[in-house]
Amino acid sequence: MQDEPTPTELIKAVADFLRTEIAPVIKGHNSFKLRVGINALDLVTRQLALAEAGDATEAARLKVLLGADGTLMELNRALSEKIASGEVDLKTPGLPEHLWQTTMDKLAVDQPNYASYKREFGK
Amino acid sequence: MIETELTRCVASFHPGATGVTGAAKLSGGASQETWTFDIVHPDGNVGAILRRAPPGYGAAPGRAAGLEAEATLMQLAHDAGLPSPKVMHVLRPEDGLGRGFIMARVEGETIARKILRDEEFAKARPMLARQLGRVIAGIHGLPQAKLPKLRGLTATKEIEDLGREYHSFNWPRPVFELALRWLRDHDPGPSSEVTLVHGDFRHGNLIIGPDGVRAVLDWELAHTGDPMEDLGWICVNSWRFGEIDKPVGGFGSREDLFAGYEEAGRKADPDRVMFWEVMGTLRWGVMCCGMMQRFRLGPDHSMERAMIGRRASETEIDLLRLLAPRGK
Fold first, then answer.
1. What's the rounded Cα separation, in Å, for the pair A115 and A92?
2. Which of A18, A38, A99, A118 is the mutation pick for testing B, counting most B CBs within 10 A?
3. Fewest CB within a 10 Å sphere: which of A107, B138, B258, B259?
4. Are β-strands B46-53 and B99-104 bridged in parallel, bridged antiparallel, or unpaired?
5. CB distance from B277 to chain A under 8 Å?
């Protein structure tokens, strides 16, 4: 068992230091790059918090939709092939809801400030 | 030092020029660079921009029209009275600066967030969509006989290209598959009219002043094809920068864009425009995934590229909003 602090706590501490102590004193293009870097650390923190639960519910939905088992990657490949062939489409029960939920869960990690996500959140 | 070559070069096309000053690189990857500088002249300095592939870099890759074609198109647009910088000089081998051209520098803003938020553009914003409709109509009307050699593109070919590129990433994305399937099912076929298409008509490539649009830049993706492609691309949600209820660049309505387009004597086809908006949304998504590939495979191992890879999901939610909208 690895010791504390957790990866999330460590990354948060680093991001907070960069945000409050370093960002105010960096200028020019490096200030833009620093902002991108802080955003990346924040994204990793969100992924560590959210991905496990999101992946589990995504896999559960996929197993029902496809009537098959497999890794998340295998299940997504199978669904992609069925959409490409037209075997399943937006009229297939559960497909629109699945695609929406999966996409919302991705945005919650990638970019929760994206305007389309904020508009759709809670619908 | 680039100023040495530039000094020799400017004297050849700007009589009386004594040198250059303030040369600074604005942007650039390995194969293409943009520089700003001032031509020094006793009658007053002149702002200029150099766009070039440095010596040692050959013809433009893949989809790019090539710098010589870009210069020709920019000059054609300028001659037609469209907002386009004057091309001052096309580089020759003896200039020692590589391939490319020098154009007049147009002052103004290209950063979307400033154009959409700053007070100085408040008066311009409500009129921009209509104005851009007129400008893009002018571009589509440029004389075919004078166009440089450009690749031709149809909806069918673009769907195939995007599908191939997406599949090469070997990472399943059911929403992209849904979009590809929708595009195949709704392919409107060849357009009745084939014109010059700018190919990247959006924020970042438009210089805006408090008075409105001042210049259209970056003809790198110019080609011939369905003129509705340009109207669809500028409506892609990724270029609205949060102002998602204003489809044209976050500042205007489709109706205003089409009205401007039709004022200039051309006809907009809203259904085709919507088709190209879906295509454009998928295209930006595939481009985001491509950034991730380039990050992983190098040589540009930058975190900016890596993070753009994580923006592909933004296009997935936008595709779902277009193709599978939910109720309130």
1. 28
2. A99
3. B259
4. antiparallel
5. no
Whether B316 and A106 lie within 8 Å, measured CB to CB: yes
pLDDT band at B328 (very low <50, low <70, confident <90, very high): low
The DSSP code for A68 is -
Tokens at A13, concatenated: 């501490």
Task: For chain A, say whether B178 makes contact (Cβ under 8 Å).
Answer: yes
- Cα–Cα distance measured from residue B96 to residue B90, given in angstroms and rounded to the nearest whole number: 12
Count CB pairs under 8 A between chains A and B.
88
- The dihedrals phi and psi of B46, each to the nearest 5 degrees, come to -125, 130
| CA pair distance A97, A103, nearest whole angstrom | 10
Residue B294 has a pLDDT of: 86
* pLDDT for B246 beyond 60: yes
What band does B327 get if pLDDT is binned at 50, 70 and 90? confident
DSSP code of B311?
A: T
pTM of the model: 0.94
CA A83 from centre of chain: 22
Tokens of B127: 């009129």
Q: Mutate which of A87, A101, A110, A120 to disrupt the B interface (most B C-beta within 10 Å)?
A: A110
Note the Cα A106 to chain centre separation in Å.
3
Give the residue among B230, B270, B268 at the shortest CA–CA distance from B249: B230
A83 vs B177, B304, B321: nearest CB: B177
* Ramachandran bin of B214, using left for φ above 0, alpha for ψ from -120 to 50, beta for the remaining angles: alpha
Residue B326 in contact with partner chain A when CB distance is under 8 A: yes
Task: Tell me if residue B21 falls in helix, strand or coil.
Answer: strand
d(CA B168, CA B262): 40
H/E segment holding residue B207: strand B206-209
Q: Please tell me which residue of chain B has the smallest CA distance to A74.
A: B172
Q: What is the pLDDT of residues B36-68, one digit of tens each?
A: 999 999 999 999 999 998 776 655 556 788 899
CB of B318 within 8 Å of any CB in chain A? yes
